[in-house]
Fold this sequence. Notes:
Layout (H helix, E strand, L loop, with lengths): L1 H16 L6 E5 L4 H12 L3 E6 L2 H10 L4 E4 L5 H15 L5 E4 L14 H29 L3 E6 L14 H21 L4 E8 L13 H11 L8 H12 L10 E4 L7
Parallel strand pairs: 1-2, 1-4, 2-3, 4-5, 5-6, 6-7
Helix pairs in contact: 2-8, 4-5, 5-6
Amino acid sequence: xxxxxxxxxxxxxxxxxxxxxxxxxxxxxxxxxxxxxxxxxxxxxxxxxxxxxxxxxxxxxxxxxxxxxxxxxxxxxxxxxxxxxxxxxxxxxxxxxxxxxxxxxxxxxxxxxxxxxxxxxxxxxxxxxxxxxxxxxxxxxxxxxxxxxxxxxxxxxxxxxxxxxxxxxxxxxxxxxxxxxxxxxxxxxxxxxxxxxxxxxxxxxxxxxxxxxxxxxxxxxxxxxxxxxxxxxxxxxxxxxxxxxxxxxxxxxxxxxxxxxxxxxx
Length: 266
């Protein structure tokens, strides 16, 4: 029995190692944090990856670290620039993009009574408008080509629970919108064989994390509110994104999965 189990585990590992072979992926916000970890994961499993990010310094680092097919600066708020970048990425990948990860996002803290309309607009434009524009750009090319695909959007546990300690109504609203958008696109595009799902990361150790600005209070917060009593890591979110992007989740669409160490279970 041991030999059979070892053989099964080896076969499963082999399948995972090549589950993105022949796939063409575009990752917005892919030069750092969860986006970069996802790019690394998809490449390691055989996929060809293009990255868009408005942080040009991070793009340079990502180009040096990974064998990317395409990596260019792009502001996801700009519909025309995004369409042009998707065309360039499609050419670089030598075929229609069939996997999109919307990881571009910004995080701002401001009490609601002090929140200016321009601050609200900035966060909604990147996190929600940008997610829609990228999803639309990829989906319409998939539909025109008659091909199936998968889209994974990054929402947040901020879409599911509120926290008076970090007031960010604009961020929470944007990420709640991402979940609603994910569900609607999943229903609209199911007939075209395009699956759309979302992940809701919790306290993940990325440059955007603010709870650990004060390590002492941050550690106390984690120990109090996160049942697993630690931060999450970008690779752990990338693992779920890879599952949702792969054929292993072929019957999964329209869901938003928390990756939060149990925080939203409390």
